[in-house]
Design goal:
This protein is α+β, with helices and mostly antiparallel strands. The protein contains nine helices and twelve strands. It is elongated and about 60 Å long.
């Protein structure tokens, strides 16, 4: 049952493994559903790697003052939680941004396959290297981009096409503030500015991108010392 769910999508990790190893890994996998807001990977918990088969996940770092900063998202078919198999206290947490269904596989089976077959070990190493590369790029945007740029980037990542072809991000102001590593009040002010400029419109629980081209330009714009100085307190 679990293997059928995973085979129905193109999994970024499973597809790298030799077919026999992929089958063995999925034989003992379990499909589990979680509600929106559920924590799948938490500090001190045992490693529970898996493949996302429905919904969307968020990888993030929490701060002691309650703020959070999003490092990336996991889409259907993508793996999560593998680093915890090797670094038990890895600080990145994984939460359900929407209701999700995941296929969890056993860490001990993966480790056994890596010891048994060098091709599996290489595939795991390449996967983790690619993930580090992606999250370093996200970290660069967090470190050198201002809050406005980060919000634009997250809206583009979170958006899904509606019937008119517009990107619609089903996210609250608080969730967007958490994603961008800022506070709700500052995120709300920036969204109001973007709305007045015609970049987006809002409705309860959703933000609609009205000018995708300009928002993409904003999300990739160069960062100046002025903007860094202006937003450093956030």
């Amino acid at each position: 049952m679990a293997s059928q769910a995973v085979e129905a999508v193109r999994a970024d990790f499973i597809d790298r493994l030799p077919p026999a190893a992929a089958r063995r890994l999925l034989e003992t996998a379990q499909s589990v559903s979680y509600p929106a807001g559920a924590a799948l990977i938490t500090p001190g918990a045992p490693a529970r790697p898996g493949i996302l088969t429905a919904g969307r996940l968020r990888g993030y770092l929490p701060e002691r003052d309650g703020r959070q900063v999003t490092l990336g998202y996991r889409e259907v078919g993508q793996a999560f939680g593998l680093t915890r198999c090797f670094v038990p206290d890895f600080p990145v947490l994984i939460g359900a941004l929407t209701p999700v269904t995941v296929t969890h596989f056993a860490p001990q089976v993966l480790l056994h396959l890596m010891r048994e077959d060098a091709a599996v070990a290489i595939a795991v190493a390449e996967f983790l290297a690619d993930r580090v590369d992606a999250e370093c790029r996200n970290a660069r945007a967090l470190a050198f981009g201002n809050a406005r740029r980060r919000i634009a980037d997250h809206l583009l990542q979170l958006g899904q096409r509606d019937q008119q072809g517009r990107l619609v991000a089903r996210v609250t102001h608080q969730q967007l503030a958490d994603a961008a590593g800022t506070v709700r009040e500052h995120a709300a002010r920036l969204l109001n500015e973007m709305r007045r400029q015609g970049l987006l419109s809002t409705r309860r629980g959703s933000i609609i991108v009205e000018d995708e081209r300009e928002l993409r330009r904003l999300s990739t714009s160069n960062v100046t010392q002025v903007t860094l100085q202006r937003d450093k307190r956030y």
